[in-house]
Amino acid sequence: MAGKSYRDQVVIVTGASSGIGWETARAFARRGAVVVSVARREDRLERLTGELRAHAPGCSHLCGDLGSQAFAEHVVRDTVARHGRLDVLVNNAGISKHKHVFHLSGEEAEQVTRVNFLSAVWTTLAAIPPMLTRGGGAIVNVSSFAAKVVPPREAVYAGTKAAMNAFTEGLWSDLRGSGIHAAIVLPGPIDTDIWKKLDESPAYAGPLYPPGIVVDAIFEAIERRRFEITVPRRSVPLVAARVLRLIAPGMLRLGMRRMDPVPETLIEQARARARSSGS
Fold it and tell me: Which residues have a Cβ under 8 Å from the Cβ of 277 and sit 6 or more positions away?
């Protein structure tokens, strides 16, 4: 078993049916943790739990929509009721929304907000009391580099992740001295199913990195009490984008326009729809 042992610790991993969540659940179970995997696809969760139990027999799963406050809170309360404790909460659940703002509806924006941001708020608020009772714990929120540098067609997705970042940064101050550590992990382009679920074709054509680098960052955040980690660490495009955002935002916007320009026809179509609707 590589790395620190988590034997008998109880860990919740949301968004565990694929990608980063799947690999995170597997990594914790291999280190002996009792993992409660959470997602909407029960067939995938059943397969995952079967694999995890080979390492930690107490592993289980809960299937449901984390965009529902009742279910998000139930995940934590049920876990504590069954296992008597909660040591680590990994808020990884998220849905994509790669869609131009002219095509976006208010209902879509609300759904993404509930899953990507509010679910993490609800699970975190439910997790704090049992963690306080035991004297500590760790909450890791898996965000996105898009929250720092927003790509075209990602306004709502990036907005939900930026909200998650601000919430977590607030926890750094509010939880000081409690024994509960809160961290943000900011993945860049990771090779997960999210790329197969985009509403509109992405302009990004660069490399996709393995989910394992995010898993490693999650463990580092917990074990070394890191507050914020961006992965991949030495990606020249990510570093350059962040530097430009700070010192030359106009140049960054120019680069974004060139990468994914807004066609004049798209604007004209949106204007025509606005006129026909009486807006």
Answer: none
Question: Residue type at 117?
Answer: F
Q: What is the pLDDT of residues 40-59, one digit of tens each?
A: 999 999 999 999 999 999 99
Structure tokens at 82: 């069954």
6 is catalytic: no
CB proximity list for 18: less than 8 A, separation 6 or greater? 39, 41, 44, 192, 193
* pLDDT averaged over every residue in the chain: 93
Low-confidence ranges of the chain (pLDDT < 70): 1-2, 195-198, 200-201, 203-205, 279
Interior CA angle at 39 toward 38 and 44, to 5°?
105
Active-site residue, selected from the candidate residues 6, 157, 204, 209: 157
Tokens of 171: 């926890």
Superfamily of domain 10-234: NAD(P)-binding Rossmann-like Domain (3.40.50.720)
Distance CA(210)–CA(212), nearest Å, equals 5
pLDDT for res 1: 42
Strands (E) located in the chain = 10-14, 34-39, 60-63, 88-91, 137-142, 180-187, 228-231
